[in-house]
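Q: Hi! First time doing this. I have a protein sequence and I read that you can turn it into a structure. Is that right? Here it is:
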Amino acid sequence: MRAIANISWPPHTLLLALTMAGCSGAAPHAATPSHGHAVVAGAEARDFGTQPWAIDIEEDTLHNDHFRVARWTGSFLQMTLMSIDVGGEIGGEQHDDIDQFIRIEAGKARVIMGKGPQNLSFDQEVEDDWAVFIPAGYWHNVMNIGDVPLKIYSIYGPGEHPRGTLHETFEDSANDPHHHHH
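A: Yes, that's right. Below is the predicted 3D structure, encoded as C-alpha cells:
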C-alpha cells in the first residue's frame, strides 16, 4: 500500500489515483461500487467523469453485468466496463480519431483488427490479464470465445460514448442512436 494524503491505496489503483489527481499528490475521491451509490446488476451504473476518482478497477470490472457502462468520462479520456456474453461480441467498429486500450479481466476472447473489415491483418486470442491496443482508424472486433462472460474495461482517448452511457445488452447498444458501429 502507498499513502497519498493519508489515504492508503493498493498498488494497482495508485497509478489511476495519481493520474486522476494530475500527479499533484492531492487525494482523489475514492469510490467503491457498494458505498454511497445505487448498485445496479452487480456494478454501479454511474459515470464519475469530470471529478477526481479512484476505483479498484478489477473489482468494478468483474462485478459489472452490463454490456457497456461508462464509468468515467472526461474531456479527453473515457473508461467503460463491458460484460460480453458467451458467444457474444463487441461488434465490428472503427474509431477514426480515437485510440483504444482494452484490458481483459476475465474470460477468453478473439481480437481481430485491420485497416478495414476485409483487410484484417491482426488476429489474436487473449485472456485474463491481457491488454489490447487499438490504433485510431483500425476496424476491430472482440468476440467472446470462452465459456464465461468476458469482463473487460476499455479506455478511449478521447471518449467515444456520451457521458453516462448504459447499455444493458448488445441489442441496447446496437439500437442506441448515439452509438456508432462503423
